[in-house]
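Subject: design request, 247 residues
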C-alpha cells in the first residue's frame, strides 16, 4: 500500500476534525539553535507552512487556519517585522499558482489596513485569484488578534444599534459571531501550538471556545506530516462533550 493509500485508509478509520488552526511558534529559537539569523528560521518556517497545507489537502480538511503574524508582533525589532512582511509578499506571489492547482481558497483574516499598499494589493490579488476554488479553505491570520476581532465585531453591532436597525436585546451569540472572522466557515475543532508554550496568545478567542488543544515542544520549522498526523490521532481519542456530560 502506497503512503497516499495508507493515509486515505487512516482517514476513513479516524474521527476527523474539519477545521484545524495552528499557532506556528519557534522559528526564532530554531534559527538560534542552528547558529543562524532569526530570518533563516522564518524562511524555514515557510517550508513548514507548505508541508502543513499539503498534508491538510491530503487529509481532506475543510479548513486550515495559520497564525502567521499577531497584532502583538509589531513590538519586535523593526528590521525583523519588515523582513517578515516582505517574506509574506514573496510567499503569496509564489504560491497562488500552487493554491489554484490544488483547488485551495485563500482567506486573509486580520487588520490589513496597517500594511503597505503594496502588501494590501498583493493580499487582495491572491484572494481574488483563488476565490472560486472549492477545496481546502486556507485562512492566514496576519496582524490578527482575538481581542481585536471581538472589538471589531462589537463596533459593527454598535453601529447597527445606533442607526436603529438592531435592538440591544436582539444581540445574541450568533449575532456577534456573524461579525467575527471565520463566521462563514465550519467551527475550529483543533488548535495546535508548536514551540513548547502552553498558551493561545490572543488567537481565535471566540472561535476556539470548544476546540480541542494540542501542544508540542517541536519548533515550527521541524513540524512535518508525522507530527501533524500525531496531533490528529490525539484528537481522535478525545471525548468532545461541548459542555455536556459523557453518555
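Subject: RE: design request

Done. Sequence follows.
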Amino acid at each position: 500500500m502506497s503512503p497516499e493509500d495508507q493515509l486515505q485508509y487512516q482517514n476513513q478509520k479516524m474521527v476527523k476534525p474539519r477545521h484545524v488552526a495552528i499557532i506556528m511558534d519557534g522559528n526564532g529559537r530554531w534559527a538560534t539553535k542552528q547558529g543562524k539569523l532569526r530570518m533563516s528560521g522564518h524562511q524555514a518556517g515557510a517550508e513548514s507552512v507548505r508541508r502543513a497545507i499539503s498534508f491538510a489537502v491530503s487529509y481532506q480538511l475543510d479548513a486550515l487556519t495559520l497564525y502567521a503574524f499577531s497584532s502583538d508582533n509589531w513590538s519586535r525589532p523593526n528590521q525583523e517585522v519588515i523582513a517578515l512582511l516582505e517574506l509574506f509578499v514573496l510567499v503569496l506571489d509564489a504560491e497562488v499558482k500552487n493554491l489554484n492547482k490544488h483547488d485551495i481558497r485563500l482567506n486573509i483574516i486580520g487588520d490589513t489596513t496597517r500594511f503597505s499598499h503594496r502588501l494590501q494589493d498583493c493580499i487582495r490579488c491572491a484572494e481574488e485569484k483563488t476565490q472560486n476554488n472549492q477545496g481546502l479553505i486556507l485562512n492566514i491570520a496576519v496582524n490578527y488578534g482575538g481581542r481585536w476581532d471581538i472589538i471589531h465585531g462589537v463596533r459593527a453591532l454598535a453601529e447597527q444599534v445606533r442607526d436603529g436597525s438592531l435592538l440591544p436585546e436582539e444581540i445574541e451569540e450568533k449575532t456577534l459571531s456573524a461579525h467575527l472572522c471565520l463566521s462563514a466557515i465550519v467551527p475550529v475543532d483543533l488548535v495546535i501550538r508548536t514551540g513548547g508554550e502552553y498558551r493561545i496568545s490572543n488567537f481565535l478567542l471566540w472561535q476556539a471556545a470548544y476546540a480541542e488543544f494540542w501542544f508540542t515542544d517541536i519548533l515550527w520549522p521541524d513540524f512535518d506530516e508525522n507530527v501533524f498526523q500525531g496531533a490528529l490521532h490525539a484528537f481522535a481519542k478525545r471525548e468532545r462533550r461541548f459542555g455536556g456530560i459523557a453518555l
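Residues 168 and 231 are 41 Å apart (CA to CA).
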